[in-house]
Amino acid sequence: MIAEQTVPDSSLIEAIKKGNDRVLGIFYKENYGKVQNMIFKNSGSDDDAKDVYQESMIELVQQIRIGRLDRLASKLSTYLYAICHHKWIDKLRKSSKVTTTPLDDQAADVVIENDGPSPYLLAMEMVLTELGERCKDLLHAFYYERLPMAEIAARLGFQDDNSAKSQKNKCMDKARLLAKNTIRQYQS
Amino acid sequence: MEESKKTELIDRYLDDTLSPDEKKIVQERLETELEFQLEIEAQSAVRSLLQADGERQALQKLMDQYHRELSKGHTTDYKGELTAHKKKGRMIRLNWGGNWPYMAIAASIALVLVGVWTVIKDKPIYNDFEVRHDPGHDMKRIPLLSWKTIDHKPSLIRSGFVNLKITSTAKKTLEYRFTSYLEIFSDSISIKTSRISLQHEQTTGTYKLWIDKKSYNIIKTDVITPLM
Asked: What ipTM was assigned to the predicted interfaces of this complex?
């Protein structure tokens, strides 16, 4: 018989997955102190603590949204702490402040589902960087916010919606070309 | 095909808004032109990137908002919030078990009390009359935590201290007087062995005095009043 795995924080995970921002906010505020303390003890500053914590929280929420933590066997707070711990150790290593990982009982037992994006995804993300801010803002407004062209034109200072649309198409042409090159590079 | 028209055609293909005739033409091209397949794959990847980037930006905004609230001292318990969603309209039983800020405050209370216990000495019992001291003399600080009820849940507004004096008396009943400082009259309570703190509920204006695991509702009064 296969024993069903228990998920201690299933209702919390479900609430965050459904987009309950209030629950997410409370979870954020509840766990910051502990992570801040860990980073302070390991040569970090207040800004380091905030950056690492926010990066980890964003990663956690993204994992929840795609259902990767539906069967999480540990508490969500323990899992979050482990992501923060790994991220901070990684940053310390990169800045050559430490060469070995300090032991931390709580973080040691947790298996992190996603240890960072693949090289292909990192290369793809460069497409948006290479596009430049103006193109990125234009495409963000059209494809993510799904704003009407007239509103985009007014927000970004185009003469009219036709010139905004023409520029939007040029930006996507450029992005598509860059993405095609990246795909080719990783296909070969 | 002109590039801008190609962009719009691919968008409409990906959004599934092509007419049946257009769809047929695109599908035929997809089967025969490798380059066209790659164009569609690339544009689809860019759209996914834009979606992921937009979601990340929205989350970053949320995180910054939470952090600002955190700096202002807003704390509460998500378990209460989850219960509130399940049992609307019912009284929420709060569970402080995993609440880090609360635990941190509790730890600081413990530290303060350890310091206080080592200094305070029990007053000798002389007779049935209370032993009076000059206020300000032999005064010790106990934690004062001010809470406000927001959406049925207590949120810590601020923490501070209030001066406490324990006066030994031969009376068996517990009594108090609460003016600019708190005075407890007791033959048994000692700051050495008891954990004492004061909780102020700002919404109702009530005070709750905690002595170890027991709590007493008290009010500001300059009359010596029984602790019940």
From this structure: 0.84
